[in-house]
Design goal:
single chain, 455 residues, alpha/beta, Aspartate Aminotransferase, domain 1, Aspartate Aminotransferase, domain 2, 2 domains, 7-stranded mixed β-sheet, 4-stranded antiparallel β-sheet, 13 helices, 14% strand
């Protein structure tokens, strides 16, 4: 009776009070064909709490957890080491229970944390201003597209998506564009060593409001963004760059340095564990301060009070819950505060030098993995360049290989057939991610298991 405290007598009294003969009488307005004619098939009847716990434990033992296997999954969510101090700090009561700052000036601790977070993201992305975080990378991508449309004042509605953009991000953009007048010009991914930048540039025209590329892209390839930025700007379009692995920016030139106008991405890699796919946090920054008022979400700023003491304020919050109503830039109602705090704490612990060392270790191990896997008969490495993630071709359906390797406690990577089910020519592709949590023993385990399965 822990969660269902009513007795039969209680129910009878309630039914009598409202004048209903039985519970079924409460649903007379529901069509007969829409009602169940009995218990849901396959679900067990009522059980005790202890019995349910025992059953769920048995089910959980069928899972293969990331920590219990040689782990090479990536494609937008990465297994990095999160120091214990990060979890310790974010579980302090003043952080864990704090909610979004509706009365911002009395939430000085929250505002300061978000200000520091923004400063870190802006520096990481090579931009002038970052906002106080968003739901996740994919929705931040759409918000960037919508922002570019506002800057174009509706005169340009074409959005050019790179074929190497994460398909989940592309799907979010296409889904949201169903409710706007935006024309989404998408392309299929090209299985080649370098991104098809010439093909992307050729699709930019005078009607283009924004161009969206990923860096590194979904296949792990790294490219110079400057020519794309130049081509977009020549047509009056904005370049939006998506980054799903922020650790990469400890080793690579930032998108802002190469001319990106808006940089967005997923912050999960820093401070936030895999967590079964969420919650995560979106990162969002702009290179030119003149575009600040078009940004979605919140912007926290530093100021001085009447006595000259440092203080923090909610500088900008152009959302429908405040004064702008239908003129709001977005309906973002959160700043993913706890995940943003975890990101900021981890980034502070690393510092710039620590982030660079972490990035180089990721790249070093990825190079070892690529060299070793290239020696497996039947395997070829697609990439000419990569950070900690690359694509290999197996010559057979990668989905079947992944399933076989999972039975050997090896989580081998993400198959392109899973990400792009409509493109049969990509089915033999496997995206392999390597981080500082990967050991050289793990790499050898993957290579040996691949040799066995492919043989």
């Amino acid at each position: 009776m822990r969660y269902l405290p009513l007795t039969d007598a209680d129910r009878s009294e309630m039914l009598e009070k409202i004048g209903a003969s039985d519970v079924d009488a409460l649903f007379v307005d529901v069509p007969e064909e829409a009602r169940l004619d009995g218990p849901i098939h396959g679900l067990p009847m009522h059980a005790s709490e202890m019995a349910v716990e025992k059953h769920m434990r048995r089910l959980s033992k069928k899972n293969l957890a990331a920590a219990d296997a040689a782990f090479f999954l990536g494609a937008g969510a990465y297994k990095h080491h999160v120091p214990a101090s990060v979890d310790h700090i974010i579980q302090r009561g003043e952080f864990l229970t704090a909610y979004t700052p509706y009365q911002p000036e009395i939430a000085q601790g929250t505002l300061q944390m978000l200000f520091e977070f923004q400063s870190q993201v802006a520096h990481l992305y090579g931009c002038a201003v970052a906002n106080a975080s968003m739901y996740d990378g994919s929705t931040a991508c759409w918000e960037a597209v919508a922002m570019a449309g506002r800057i174009a004042r509706g005169k340009k509605r074409k959005v050019v998506l790179s074929g190497a953009l994460h398909p989940h991000y592309a799907e979010v953009v296409k889904t949201m564009a169903k409710f706007t007048d935006d024309e989404i010009a998408h392309a299929r991914p090209a299985m080649q060593a370098a991104p098809d930048n010439d093909g992307l540039i050729a699709r930019i025209d005078e009607d283009t409001a924004s161009v969206v590329v990923q860096y590194p892209d979904i296949l792990g390839r790294v490219t110079d963004l400057a020519p794309i930025a130049e081509a977009a700007h020549a047509k009056g379009a904005l370049l939006i760059v998506v980054n799903t692995e922020p650790v990469a920016l400890g080793a690579l030139k930032s998108p802002g340095e190469m001319g990106a106008d808006i940089v967005v991405g997923e912050g999960q890699s820093i401070g936030v564990g895999l967590q079964f796919g969420g919650p995560y946090l979106g990162l969002f920054a702009v290179r030119d301060p003149k575009h600040v008022r078009m940004m979605p979400g919140r912007l926290c700023g530093e100021t001085q009070d009447a006595e000259g003491k440092r203080g923090y304020v909610l500088t900008l919050s152009t959302r429908e819950q405040h004064i702008r109503r239908e003129k709001a830039t977005s309906n973002i109602c959160t700043n993913s505060g706890l995940c943003a705090l975890a990101f900021s704490v981890h980034m502070t612990l690393l510092g710039e030098a620590g982030l660079r060392r972490l990035a180089m270790e990721n790249h070093r191990l990825a190079c070892i993995a690529a060299d070793r896997l290239a020696k497996v008969p039947g395997v070829s490495v697609l990439n000419d360049s990569f950070f900690n993630e690359f694509t290999i071709r197996l010559g057979t359906d990668a989905r079947a290989v992944v399933r076989k390797l999972a039975k050997q406690d090896v989580l081998a990577g993400v198959s392109l057939g899973r990400l792009f089910p409509d493109h049969a020519d990509l089915a033999d592709g496997l995206i392999v991610a390597v981080t500082e949590t990967t050991t050289e023993e793990d790499i050898e385990t993957l290579a040996s298991a691949l040799e066995e399965v492919l043989a």
